[in-house]
Amino acid sequence: RMRVGIAAKIIAAVAIPAVGFIGFAVAYISEHWRTAREIASTEQAFVYAVSASTLVHELQKERGASALFIGARGAQFVPELRTQRSETDKAFAAFRQALEPLRQASSLREVAALGDKARQEVEAVPARRSQIDALTLPGPQSFAGYTATIRSLLASMHGLGAVTQQPELIAALGTYLAFLEGKEQAGQERATGSGA
């Protein structure tokens, strides 16, 4: 029961303020941007940012649920892990859909390349899941694998500022990325402290 409580706290701690961020972006674009190309590229960038951060969030939750499952030697947390994997898969589908238009935007091709690298990392998750289910993947290795995938997704988002020269929008994106990085670092530190 205590471990479930800890997991709930971790999940709550990594909640993503995507709605507020995208709301600011939409309001700013509506007020300050004029050309169709600028609007399209910026919209693509922020749709990607939200989809990537949502996938990060779901992978963080799956990382935690997997740690609980492994720690219980498969005797507990089976339904929770199954449900979380489904949520991760939904987020991955949305991520792939958001990634596709970036390949056509010249200002976002570097982000698209990093996004493709992250996509390949996520595509390796099912193999990791099979090892987790069979209890052949030790907890630290499971944690490290998920963390590498999360880091790849976060890295892909750092080039999004190239879509705009507007300081207010760049600052908002920087604040958002700093939040995501900080939550991921905090999650790693908590897991290290609990022996995950």
What does this structure look like?
This protein is elongated. α3 packs antiparallel against α7 and α5 (109-123) packs antiparallel against α7 (139-157). The chain contains eight helices and no strands. Helices cover 79% and strands 0% of the residues. With 196 residues, it is mostly helical. The protein has helices spanning 2-13, 18-32, 36-71, 78-99, 109-123, 125-133, 139-157, 167-193. It starts with a helix and ends with a helix.
Give the integer mean of the pLDDT values. 83
Number of continuous helical runs: 8
Provide the β-strand percentage band: under 5%
**Structural class label:** mainly alpha
Shape: elongated
| Oligomeric state, counting identical vs distinct chains | single chain
* Poorly predicted tracts of residues: none
Helix content: over 70%
Largest sheet at a glance? Answer: none
The end-to-end span amounts to 17 Å
Number of strands: 0
Order of helices and strands: HHHHHHHH
Round the Cα radius of gyration to an integer and report it: 18 Å
